[in-house]
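Hey team,

Filing this mostly as a record. A colleague (T.K.) asked me to run one chain through the structure pipeline before their review meeting, and I want the input and output archived in the tracker in case anyone asks later how it was produced. No errors, nothing strange. Just documentation.

Input sequence:
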Amino acid sequence: MLVDIEKFIYNDKIYSKCNAADKEMIDTCLHGVRQQIETFKDAYRQAQEEIALLKRENKALSDDNEMKCELNEELNKALDKTCEELETFDMTFNNADFDEVKNKEQWKEWSLHNEKI
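Output structure:
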């Protein structure tokens, strides 16, 4: 678009009809506009680079989060299996006193409660 404006000013004999002061003002204004356009282009390129970087960081964080969720799921399964074994063990060795026997969920609650302490 700036090229079209410059063509209009310089090629359509408008510029040639201007006095020296007007020509200097036109040249100064167009130079300022060119500088602003370059500044905006640089800012746009920088913003695009930052967006690309943020997308890569977001992907890495998403992958990390997914891995942690999978690990958490595996740990929960292992905890469930362990609590099932504890329930069986508890019933086998404490069958005379059922008040002290814990079921799977009670063992899980106990282990999670004690882990936070």
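Quick notes for T.K.: The chain has a mean pLDDT of 86. Helices lie at 2-11, 20-93, 104-116.
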